[in-house]
C-alpha cells in the first residue's frame, strides 16, 4: 500500500491508503505502486485513479499540478480537484 495525500489550495482534499495510483503526468500516464522509485513530476489536467482497499477504483479530476513520490508516500499538489467516481 502507498499513503496518498491530495492537496489543493484550500487544504487536504483526500488522504488515505491505495494499492496503486495513476496520474496524468506531462510526459504521459504515470502508474505508482508500493516501493516506487522516488520521483517528482508535473501533472496536466486529467484524471487521477486510486485503487483503494475498500473500492476497486476511485477517480478524481485535477486541473494540473505536481506529484511527489518518496518511498511509499505519494503527495499530489493539484490546482483543483473534484470526484468523478465516488471514493
Automatic annotation (TrEMBL):
ATP synthase F1 complex delta/epsilon subunit N-terminal domain segment(s): 3-81
- Output the InterPro entries linked to this UniProt entry: ATP_synth_F1_dsu/esu, ATP_synth_F1_dsu/esu_N, ATPsynth_dsu/esu_N
Q: Name one Pfam family in it.
A: ATP-synt_DE_N
UniProt superkingdom: Bacteria
Q: Does Membrane count among this protein's keywords? A: yes
How does the UniProt record describe the way this protein sits in the membrane? Answer: Peripheral membrane protein
The record describes its quaternary structure and partners as: F-type ATPases have 2 components, CF(1) - the catalytic core - and CF(0) - the membrane proton channel. CF(1) has five subunits: alpha(3), beta(3), gamma(1), delta(1), epsilon(1). CF(0) has three main subunits: a, b and c.
Q: What is this protein called?
A: ATP synthase F1 subunit epsilon
Gene that encodes the chain: atpC
Amino acid at each position: 500500500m502507498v499513503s496518498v495525500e491530495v492537496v489543493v489550495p484550500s487544504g487536504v482534499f483526500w488522504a488515505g491508503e491505495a494499492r496503486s495510483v495513476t496520474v496524468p503526468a506531462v510526459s504521459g500516464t504515470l502508474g505508482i505502486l508500493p516501493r516506487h522509485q522516488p520521483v517528482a513530476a508535473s501533472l496536466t489536467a486529467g484524471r487521477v485513479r486510486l485503487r483503494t482497499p475498500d473500492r476497486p477504483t476511485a477517480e478524481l479530476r485535477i486541473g494540473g499540478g505536481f506529484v511527489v513520490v518518496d518511498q511509499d508516500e505519494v503527495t499530489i499538489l493539484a490546482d483543483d480537484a473534484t470526484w468523478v467516481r465516488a471514493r
